[in-house]
Here is the input.
Amino acid sequence: MMHQNLKKIISFAAAIMLLICAFGVSNAVLGVSGVTEVKVYQNDTLTNEENFNDVKKGWDKAISYANSSNQVSITLGDNWSHDDCLKIPENSNVTLDLNGYYIHRTRNREYVSDGEVFYVSKGATLTIKDSRPYSKGYDGVEGGVITGGASSDTAGGIHLAKDSSLYMNGGTIYECTSQYNGGGICANEGSKNIELRNSRIYFCQAADSSDNCYGGGMYIEDNTKTVIEDSTIDSCYCEDDGGAIYFENLGKTLYMHNAIFSANRANEQGGAIYIGSMSGDATTDVKAVNSFFVNNTSVDEGGAVYVNGRDKKNENPVLFTGCVFKKNISEDEGGAIYVNDRYVAVTDCSVIENKAKKEGGGIYVDSYYDLSVKGSVIIRDNESEDTRHNNLCLQEGAASTARVYSGGLYRNSYIVVSTTDDETHFSKNITEYQARYFHAEDGDLSFEKKDTVSTPLYASIFGTGSAFVIIGIIALGIAAIAIAIIVKKKGEKKND
Here is the structure.
């Protein structure tokens, strides 16, 4: 009996040892054994590899190798709290794998100059990834986390210098603060590229400033090409414009795809996004595709998005395609979108259950501008305190009036529209067939036929425009002439 018990004890101990060994091997494979790994490459060939038990020593060694000739990779083996700005050297290429750990700059919300977590120097590239996105993380935020930056000037999380780039595929920038611009990320010196994929900017802010401060999550200007894909910016705050993003960027792109903007707030315009003036430039391009704008708030106009004006030199439209705007709030006008720009187009979008304290619970269009709609568009079930203008509100001005264009609405479209002077004249160049998708906020809409049609805006936004209308008119004309000729010939034969 005693011999059998001894066998059981030995078997149990062996099983425990196997589990421990397996766990150790899996940890080693995942790179979570407490060892920070540094690798150096030249022309994609590994030239050096070192391991460190101390994260700081590993980081310092990695940065010592970083130059224009080497590509340096560092994989964290532990969490790291410190109070230094981590600088990526000029013209270097550094890849950081957060590996499920956090980098915490211990500012405790005490602002200091250059208080950001990372500074990407001139011409440098920083690539961030996270091999363990479901690890414990920091403060309830799963996966790799960058946190704690508090800057009295620009950028709380990551600051990009001239000609630098940031590629982030995984990880979260959390609770970083700037007293000026860009709580999470700031690109204000002519940086090249920002790409966020499978990433998150959370609970960052631009606030506590005696001057203007913009972009709670991101501040982008000066020729920075920006892509946000499969990523989320949420619960960010700005004391002025752009709760999540402030974009004032001449000559480049802001492209958002499968992005989520949720619970952001601006104390002025653009609860989620403020798109600033792009006057004088013909190449700036802004597109949001299959993205969600939910529960964002602005104290002034544009609960989710504020689009500012441009001159005629920039005819690239601001496009929203396949997007959902829901439960956004403006304490002024434009619960979801405020249009103060000549080229804004909404395609296959749903704008529902948004609120404005004044007019345009869904979308408000300034009197100098127009809105284009295409595809299956729903603008209904929104609210404003002025119940005459709950949904799409077009401003009537003394010198000009806002109007809506149709680039071809599809079945199931439903747009509730009003004008601020309560007239029924609301559209430009919409066919009688298309007009059935529009519904008056109060009363009925009238339809007035006109012989001449000109659609330059429709043409510039959707690529057909005048050609579509004119070709139709020409086709009808040709058909009429052909019929007349046939009738004439038949008459001549009959006379013969």
About this structure: Residues 16-32, 451-483, 485-491 have pLDDT under 50 and may be disordered. The chain has three domains: 1-30, 32-205, 280-287+314-486.
